[in-house]
Known about the structure:
Blueprint: E1 6-10, E2 14-20, E3 30-34, E4 37-42, E5 45-50, E6 62-66, E7 71-77, H1 91-95, H2 117-133, H3 137-147, H4 203-217, H5 220-228, H6 231-237, H7 254-261, H8 272-296, H9 304-311, H10 313-316, H11 337-351, H12 360-375, H13 378-393, H14 399-415, H15 419-431, H16 443-471
Antiparallel strand pairs: 1-2, 2-7, 3-4, 4-5, 6-7
Helix pairs in contact: 5-16, 8-9, 8-11, 8-12, 12-15, 13-14
Amino acid sequence: xxxxxxxxxxxxxxxxxxxxxxxxxxxxxxxxxxxxxxxxxxxxxxxxxxxxxxxxxxxxxxxxxxxxxxxxxxxxxxxxxxxxxxxxxxxxxxxxxxxxxxxxxxxxxxxxxxxxxxxxxxxxxxxxxxxxxxxxxxxxxxxxxxxxxxxxxxxxxxxxxxxxxxxxxxxxxxxxxxxxxxxxxxxxxxxxxxxxxxxxxxxxxxxxxxxxxxxxxxxxxxxxxxxxxxxxxxxxxxxxxxxxxxxxxxxxxxxxxxxxxxxxxxxxxxxxxxxxxxxxxxxxxxxxxxxxxxxxxxxxxxxxxxxxxxxxxxxxxxxxxxxxxxxxxxxxxxxxxxxxxxxxxxxxxxxxxxxxxxxxxxxxxxxxxxxxxxxxxxxxxxxxxxxxxxxxxxxxxxxxxxxxxxxxxxxxxxxxxxxxxxxxxxxxxxxxxxxxxxxxxxxxxxxxxxxxxxxxxxxxxxxxxxxxxxxxxxxx
Length: 476
């Protein structure tokens, strides 16, 4: 089945769905409405949408087909007149499967079979009896000693190792992906910091390798040079990001809508803590986007795919947030200053180690951009993620990060992210106080040394001029 291009609009009493279905027979149109779920089938096209509010039944719907333009227009009647159907422009959200009523509070398991409870209890009792009869002599002595209340030696049981049925470790969005790096040695992936072990490297080892690589790439002289010669960086600081302005009249382009139609249609059963961590990882994605957007002034270059990939720990080392050693807040919808500082510190370390411009003030400006983008809500954030996806999709190597991260992140942002949570996160990020000592580099000392060198430089020039004057012959 083919998903047609479509758009949705509404009046006080109706929702209008307009689909591009060229060369079909209008008599073959099948429409089905089940409260919020609407589907239409006209061979070879099929469209299923989940609306935010219920609709009236099939008898209250109507359809018309314009053979000249190829557009099928379906008019649906609202169950409650005047009710506002939100997010009709978020095509990926409309296409996403109907979400579960309650998010899982623990890891989801699949029940393969079930039997009668009473029968299970009887079988368990019989199994326990058989095991008791097979007790060894030593175990019987221990049981008799326990009955006499003797003091027996006790040891704290060691935690069991993680159960693994495959040598591979999953990665990407909610650890849903594997197999994308099996042939990584045959590609020129310059940002991959795990090498050929990407499929088998455990998460703890990924983080160690990332930190080690950042330390190796850290260059004090490069940082001091950008600190002293910062004329162009100062120009970048005054550039205004168009996505941080007002969203009045905001709409997605035809290219954005076409991209959303190609996104995966999944239901993400994320636990509350996993959702919390997704918001933190989103911050690292947005900081990478803000850096590339500001340094290119929203005009991507051939290096933009590399910049986005190398600045994102979840891409280059498959190492997503959280990065804080502190325990997470008890409320998954809250974000502590410690974990936000650790999240931005992980991105700052990469800003100071890899890209063309390495500046503290530039990193701080990008963080301000992230706060402004969060404040605009999920529509604007989805636009930024779609722009990142467009850049990576057109790269012959780095498209892989779009597959394992951005595709799912786009759907999750549009269908599951909360504007309320994003606004709270925006205010917290904006008021966050980042200290240079958090990065693990002696930035304060380096900048003080650079300032001292700049103060000495004029004095050296004056001394040179005095020496030249003494060497010149006296005037007649």
